[in-house]
Design brief:
This protein has about 220 residues and is α+β, with helices and mostly antiparallel strands. The protein has a single domain, classed as 2-Layer Sandwich (Alpha-D-Glucose-1,6-Bisphosphate, Chain A, domain 4), CATH 3.30.530. The protein contains 6 helices and 7 strands. It has a 7-stranded antiparallel beta sheet with strand order 1-7-6-5-4-3-2. A hairpin with a 4-residue loop joins strand 3 and strand 4. Helix 1 runs antiparallel to helix 2.
């Protein structure tokens, strides 16, 4: 218990220091949590395992208004390999199979991390749902949805983070603290950048560039 209290205090001190030094926060996340130290799978994973219903999760949802008809937006978000053109942190979006709810692809981020997306639900013209993860474990459930609003479209992305999978080597008490203080704000910023990328591509018909809407230390590099 003494060790745990010291560790929690250590986390709180790091959070206060972050405002002055971003690199310390990045070092803490990369080295202490080990969140991005994944062994990349050689072959694609046919089924990503989700945690039990009692597992620790964190839910994040962000939306953006896009000046385009829902049907046209659907054609964009359902296009295979579209992340190569729309995602500000995606270096390569490789399609393994593209067949509605049986679709599978991978994302290689600019910092070298590789994640796999397994689609599990497909609502034509409305949205889809997928699991994203690594090493046969799903790190999150992701829901993409489109709604019409006054001849515009509202694109939403919701994420349920499976903290017991992504932070399984950390004690349960610390998982909740880390999830709330570190992963939640970083993932919210990530979602807003991804949504901004789709808005830019849909309205300007131009490919999104690296870090176009800001740098994210879990998914990209500054250079």
């Amino acid at each position: 218990m003494y060790y745990l209290l010291n560790l929690v205090c250590f986390l709180a001190r790091l959070q206060s220091v972050y405002a002055e030094n971003h690199s310390i926060r990045a070092f803490f996340i990369f080295k202490f949590i080990g969140y991005i130290h994944y062994n990349q799978p050689r072959f694609y994973i046919s089924c990503l395992q989700t945690p039990s219903l009692k597992s620790l999760t964190a839910t994040i949802e962000c939306s953006i208004c896009i000046d385009i008809e829902p049907a046209k937006l659907w054609a964009i978000i359902s296009k295979p390999g579209i992340l190569d053109e729309t995602h500000p942190f995606c270096k390569k979006n490789e399609v393994i199979r593209w067949d509605r709810e049986k679709s599978i692809d991978t994302i290689v981020y600019y910092n070298g991390r590789k994640m796999q997306r397994n689609f599990i639900d497909w609502n034509e013209g409305k949205g889809y749902q997928l699991l994203i993860g690594h090493k046969e474990l799903a790190d999150a459930l992701v829901t993409w949805s489109i709604k019409e609003s006054h001849n515009h479209s509202i694109l939403s992305i919701g994420i349920v983070l499976y903290l017991d999978n992504s932070l399984g080597h950390i004690s349960k008490v610390l998982r909740k603290i880390i999830g709330r203080l570190y992963l939640y704000p970083i993932m919210k910023s990530y979602l807003n950048s991804v949504l901004s990328g789709f808005k830019f591509f849909s309205e300007k018909n131009k490919t999104v560039t690296k870090n176009q809407f800001g740098y994210n230390q879990l998914f990209s590099t500054k250079s």
